[in-house]
Structure formats: C-alpha cells, structure tokens
Design a protein that fits this description.
mainly beta; 0% helix; elongated; two-stranded antiparallel ribbon
C-alpha cells in the first residue's frame, strides 16, 4: 500500500473579486478562509486557489462559503 502523501492544486471560479482574506485558520486536516468579495465585478470573477493533501475520508472536505 502506498502511504505517500500527494499535494494537489485546486482551482474554483466564483463571482465577484477577492478584496483580502479576513480570517485564515488551519487545524489538523482542515482549513478555513473567510474573505469578502465585490459583486460589481461579477462578470470578470476570480479564481480561488489552494493546496491540500488528499484525505483518507473523501467526505471530510473543506467547506467553501461565498
């Protein structure tokens, strides 16, 4: 069995624009990032990128609120 951890780069597109992160919190295998957005820039949008390790339990996933 391969126990090597692999790191993945994930990208998701949202409406609005990132102004600045308000809160960044990392604990165990989870991370929380809270940010505000500008809805006036919804046509352009933005890409939220993050790096994470593949979790043993696929149901434990980072919750994205936007």
């Amino acid at each position: 069995m391969d126990t090597t951890s692999k790191t993945y780069l994930c990208r998701h597109r949202f409406c609005g624009a990132i102004t600045s992160p308000i809160v960044k919190h990392i604990k165990g295998y989870g991370a929380t990032v809270v940010f505000s957005s500008i809805p006036d820039n919804s046509k352009r949008g933005f890409v939220l990128s993050y790096r994470g390790r593949k979790c043993h339990n696929p149901l434990k996933w980072i919750s994205e609120r936007y």
